[in-house]
User: What shape does this take?
Amino acid sequence: MTALDAIVALIFNAILNGTPLMFGTMGEILTEKSGNLNLGVEGMMYMGGAFGIAGAYYYEKAAGGAASGPLAILIALLCAFLAGAFGALCYGFVTITLRANQNVTGLALAILGTGVGQFVGEYMRLREGGYVAVSNALKDNFQNPVFPEFLQSIPVVGKIVFGHNLFVYLGILTAVVMTVYFNKTRRGLNLRAVGESPATADAAGINITRTKYLATVIGGGISAIGGMVYIMTIAGCVWNHEGLAGEGWLAVALVIFCLWRPLNALWGSALFGALMILYMRVHLPIPDEIYKILPYVVTMIVLVITSMRRKKEDHPPESLGVAYFREER
Amino acid sequence: MTSVENTCAVRMEEVTKTFGSVTANDRVTLEIRKGEILSLLGENGSGKTTLMNMLAGIYFPDSGRIYVNGKEATIASPRDAFAHGIGMIHQHFKLVNVLSAAENVVLGLEGGVFLDIREVSRRIREIAGQYGFAVDPAKKVYDMSVSEKQTLEIIKLLYRGADILILDEPTAVLTPQETEKLFDVLRRMKKDGKAIVIITHKLHEVMELADRVAVLRRGEFVGEMKVSETDTAAMTNMMVGRQISLNIERSEPRDPKPRLAITGLTVVDGEGVTKLDHVSFTAMGGEILGIAGVAGSGQKELLEAVAGLCPIKEGKILYTPEGKEPSDLVGKTPMQIKDAGVAMAFVPEDRLGMGLVGGMGMVGNMMLRSWREGGGIFVRHRNPGALAKTVMDELEVVTPDVNYPVRRLSGGNVQKVLVGREIATAPSVLMSAYAVRGLDINTSYTIYNLMNQQKEKGVAVIFVGEDLDVLLELCDRILVLYDGRVSGIVNAREVAKEEVGLMMTRLGKGENADA
Assistant: This one.
């Protein structure tokens, strides 16, 4: 293997491993733009992972040999989204309607969601005889590249640009759509105003409660898809209760790293993906454990650097983490 | 009264609004006309802003009717107000900092999914051209000056098609040049047939700009006049009303000695606005010095500067304790000021926000002043406990227990705790701001008596108040602040209420008059 091949392989795998993080981050960006800080990403990603594989697995079990790949993907996406959206809805009810502390509620959701995900996954595994995995035919639908062979065989860029599974491109599409939504649409503008200054938005006739709920619930759903993507691609369509640990927390940090911009989440997640797999790809005479703490070390460094930001546009939404009482205007 | 060009835009009839036991507006009837600038005049707390907030959809009247263009209207939200063409510019701007001018203007409006910011910018320039505004639609709000932000607020209303505009003290934050520009714009809008209301307590602005003036006092409509047919003296009389006798006991100062000599005190805030401009006066021991002025004339900054809580640009604060050498307080920390033997008692304007910890009981709050006493890392509970008990008994604080959270006490009781604690430190200068704000008559008298007791003990009492009647009867001398400057210092026993009222609006004896 030449050095070039090694680099291509590293980049390719970095993107692959960063994809769950990308969804987690984008969902949280949407949530935070509305002024809600949902620390429960970890929990929602676990729920998404468990319910995502459950959806695909039981669909295949019911349909047997006639199971269609695209439909299985759709069901997995939907199950994961709904699971995450439900978690975010609980969070939304407590923080938006009841105006409880967002940090505490988010932490509670992280613990609850992790527990629910673990319970569902493990219960399913035990009931199904100790092993839950979809058939190889379906696996291919989740994991294989979507672009034709000749595009992938372009030297160097072919594999990096066209060699990925469906979810990588879905993530990129989501980032583009979110960017357009934030910057070019009326509702996107209204959403940003709610996160920045709810009193101003309220005076302008924007429905604060509805805007916050929608952003939080949809954001939670998008985050949860990240968990499903991990289980169905990296973990090989097998319920794996360890691999997801920590992804949600990295996603929360990555939101700050990306300065709340979805397009930044694309390369940000690839960078963190690279850090996560570095120990398998780059061999230096140091213990593996040093490699494995890299993402967390970089997160801390990044938090320090980004907190020194100068431009106003790079600041978090002004009312992030603050509940809105109309009476206080 | 109705002429062809002055047709009625809004008519409020018998509008009443109460907050708890306080009546903010009592059966006010007011007419706003097209093509006319109406000035709503009144002292602080006379209910001007509340009245206009009911038109803007912020508050809903308890009773009374509002007619817009002759038809009865229900205005329950800002959105309803827009629908009726009513727009209000509040003292605190409602703008999103990270968005551009154009984005702020279009916020919350209905329309297509995608935003055509170029079209919005074009219309903003069109409106700006029509009324002579200078505005850059792409400029971010955080880059704007206060005046630009105000301009943007006006454009926001015009863009939404408002033809009844209400401005709440629009000149309070502007420089004289910016004020002139704003007035030009308002005159042009008037010519265009818009109905304009400006809330103010600056008489010269009324004279310069308005066609008609309506006066409110203590929530009631006192009367209205054509500006061309009146003068400032008549307006002041309406604004402050007749002098009311309160029968507050007042003793002659015994042996007053200079306690606090302030010369050329200048304070500039973080945004570069001059809050105090070369203020000079002397507070005597054994005397109550009242400080009068419309809200935001520098009262807060004055007290904070003396207490060492806000940075002083220039000036001297010479403090002479009983039988000691004078020392300059400028440049000392609040703690140093205390350690130097200066006992300073401070009752903040915002009684809970700064003076007390809501979640703690009376004992805990007493301890805020004495936590450094006692040995080692442990605080001593006994003395504050006894003090809390004394304050509770002497000032008749109604609380279930001295450890009951003060946040849950009624306003009057909270204030008694605060004042009681400050007096208990046996100060030689006692500064209080709005000590009787929101208190009922009896409690107010308790506070007045406390102030008098301190005065008789030889304390220099500085009493910032908003009720002129109280100031006139309680204080020995009154210092009038206007826009951060000393408009005059008068003898409270001799001065007429109207005279103080005029000085508050910059028509008194001129600056730095000494008494």
Chain A has one domain: 19-328. Residues 19-328 of chain A form one domain. The longest helix of chain A spans residues 3-33.
